Amino acid sequence: MGLINEHLVFPDQQFADNEAALRFLAGKLNAAGKVHDDFFDAVWAREQKFPTGLPAGKINVAIPHADAKYVKESAIAVATLAQPIPFHNMAVTDQEIPVSLIMMLAIHEPHGQVQVLQNVMALFQDEQHLAQLLQEHDAHALFTDLDKTLGAISLDR
């Protein structure tokens, strides 16, 4: 099985703020047995020091994550947002940007994050594909698209 799991893909979500969004995704990863109980705390602490908002043209994304020691089994949890929420820009940390897609990385292999980030970044550079993902309202269809794009990545074998 790859990193994308249909039960960890959530289209059209609404959150009051980025903390609520990160808590939701981390909770889903925890409920799926992919991460340890302190994963959210580690993600949130990291987000405060090293923001994960990424300008990607017209659609901004966020790629929150934590160290491998908080992860039991590699996975990616994905949420598209009905309304963008602010995240701090990873390049200009005092600047907030409106994020419409969140990919929370839970990578068990300490050196696997580089491979995953390369694949995710390639997706984020395709503005047309990002727009297509945001238009998808069905979880299965969103999963199918992401699985075609990122499903070949597997680190826990």
From TrEMBL:
SUPFAM superfamilies for the chain: Phoshotransferase/anion transport protein
Pfam families cross-referenced by the UniProt entry: PTS_EIIA_2
Domain PTS EIIA type-2: 2-149
Domain of life: Bacteria
CDD domains found in the cross-reference section: PTS_IIA_fru (cd00211)
InterPro entries: PTrfase/Anion_transptr (IPR016152), PTS_EIIA_type-2_dom (IPR002178), PTS_SugarTrans_NitroReg (IPR051541)
PANTHER family with a match to the protein in the record: PHOSPHOTRANSFERASE SYSTEM MANNITOL_FRUCTOSE-SPECIFIC IIA DOMAIN CONTAINING PROTEIN, PTS SYSTEM FRUCTOSE-LIKE EIIA COMPONENT-RELATED
Designated name of the protein: PTS system, galactitol-specific IIA component
